[in-house]
Design goal:
- By secondary structure, the chain is of the alpha/beta class.
- It contains eight helices and six strands, in the order βαβαβαβαβαβααα.
- It has helices at residues 14-25, 39-51, 64-73, 89-96, 106-111, 130-144, 147-159, 164-179, and strands spanning 2-5, 31-34, 56-59, 76-79, 99-103, 123-125.
- The chain has a six-stranded parallel β-sheet with strand order 3-2-1-4-5-6, sandwiched between helices.
- Strand 1 (2-5), helix 1 and strand 2 form a beta-alpha-beta unit.
- Helix 1 packs across helix 6 (130-144).
- The chain is globular.
- The N and C termini lie far apart (53 Å).
Length: 182
């Protein structure tokens, strides 16, 4: 199951998702979206829910409890953002073991590394277009079909540490390195 929890806005990548949704759904994927926003995208997901009854669920609202349940039950978390200065949703998804599929931009690029090398914590794509996003989704689905490898990926994802303690430790290490330059 691919899930999205987001403000439904063009900046979040829903325009390229619209271009790829038919192909995504041709690949026996379930899809859940939770959020509110631009009417165009709310209507788009209502259409998808009607078109693929039982495989697409659109919840045009925001509810923290439901969001937690979606994070916990999803297999993959899609964030095809045009830009994302920081991004928290991908970090929440990692904690739940829901593998992020993100566009390499801003904080998404900083926190999610492609698992194509066997060491990353998600799936990424560079170009802001439907074809590259679809390719990342299909690579994630292919990885999901290998349970042993997928479990290793989920374990790596859940071990990621984006806490303030980890950030403070990195800051101290960087500070000490800079001090050694003088």
């Amino acid at each position: 199951m691919v899930c999205m929890i987001s403000r439904l806005a063009n900046q979040k990548g829903f325009d390229i998702l619209a271009d790829a949704m038919e192909r995504i759904m041709e690949n026996d994927i379930q899809f859940v979206v939770l959020g509110t926003g631009e009417k165009e995208y709310e209507d788009m997901f209502r259409y998808y829910e009607d078109r693929w009854k039982g495989r697409v669920c659109s919840c045009m609202m925001f509810d923290d409890t439901l969001a937690q349940k979606i994070y916990a039950s999803g297999d993959m978390f899609l964030m095809p953002s045009k830009s994302e200065p920081c991004g928290l949703s991908q970090m929440v998804a990692l904690r739940y073991g829901t593998i992020p599929i993100v566009r390499e931009t801003g904080g998404l690029r900083d926190s999610i590394h492609d698992s194509g090398d066997g060491w990353g914590n998600g799936f990424t794509f560079r170009s802001y277009n439907a074809h590259d996003m679809l390719n990342a989704v299909l690579r994630a689905k292919a990885g999901y079909e290998y349970p042993d490898g997928w479990q290793q990926l989920v374990k790596r994802a859940m071990e990621c540490d984006f806490s303030w303690s980890a950030s403070a430790k990195q800051y101290v290490e960087m500070y000490e390195q800079v001090c050694q330059l003088w």
